[in-house]
Specification:
- Helix content is 25%, strand content 41%.
- It is α+β, with helices and mostly antiparallel strands.
- It folds into two domains: 74 residues, 2-Layer Sandwich (Alpha-Beta Plaits); 82 residues, Alpha-Beta Plaits (2-Layer Sandwich), CATH 3.30.70.260.
- The chain is flat, with a radius of gyration of 20 Å.
- InterPro entries: ACT-like_dom_sf, ACT_dom, GcvR, UPF0237/GcvR_regulator.
Length: 173
């Protein structure tokens, strides 16, 4: 069954997920995976839907009926996506970062990961008021899949150096 990846965005209000799910179900689609959130008054996310091949065009056309409520863009999913190559030595590392907010934190952390040829599986970030110091705190939670044979000690050292440069706390588990 083909898979479609939807990107969705709209003004946040009740019923958005239900409206999208109604269209998916009406076209024999199966909601497989999603990451959805309210951000700055907008509701945004990514949804993976499996749909019978003969209904793909019909479902894609029906999504236009959500205009005004949600902007939905459908992208074809890659064949075999979601199936990770078998690497018995692979591990997942979780990187948690907390510190004063400043421009460039995500760029710096992602650059370290990119130089090590590591791909981010999930990343969540947020800013929030610093309880006693004033200003904003930046918090990130990143999960990366590390193939067997990768030098995790060097990765940890790179992240520790970065934490010192950025004046943030970084924990790797």
């Amino acid at each position: 069954m083909p898979r479609l990846v939807f990107t969705v965005i709209g003004d946040d209000r009740a019923g958005l997920v239900s409206a999208l799910a109604d269209v998916v179900t009406a076209h024999d689609g199966n909601w497989e995976d999603s990451q959805l959130a309210e951000l700055a008054g907008k509701f945004a996310g990514i949804v993976v839907v499996g749909v019978p091949a003969e209904r793909v065009d019909e479902l894609t056309a029906a999504l236009r009926g959500l205009d005004g409520l949600l902007e939905v863009t459908a992208h074809p999913g890659a064949e075999g996506a979601g199936v990770v190559a078998d690497d018995a030595d692979a591990q997942r590392l979780t990187i948690d970062l907390l510190g004063n907010d400043s421009p460039g934190i995500v760029r710096e952390v992602s650059s370290v990961l990119s130089r090590r040829e590591l791909s981010i599986e999930t990343m969540t970030t947020e800013t929030r008021e610093a309880p006693m110091a004033g200003g904003l705190l930046f918090e990130a939670h990143v999960v990366v899949r590390v193939p067997g044979g990768s030098d995790t000690a060097a990765l940890r050292a790179d992240l520790e150096r970065l934490a010192t440069e950025l004046l943030v706390d970084i924990a790797v588990a």
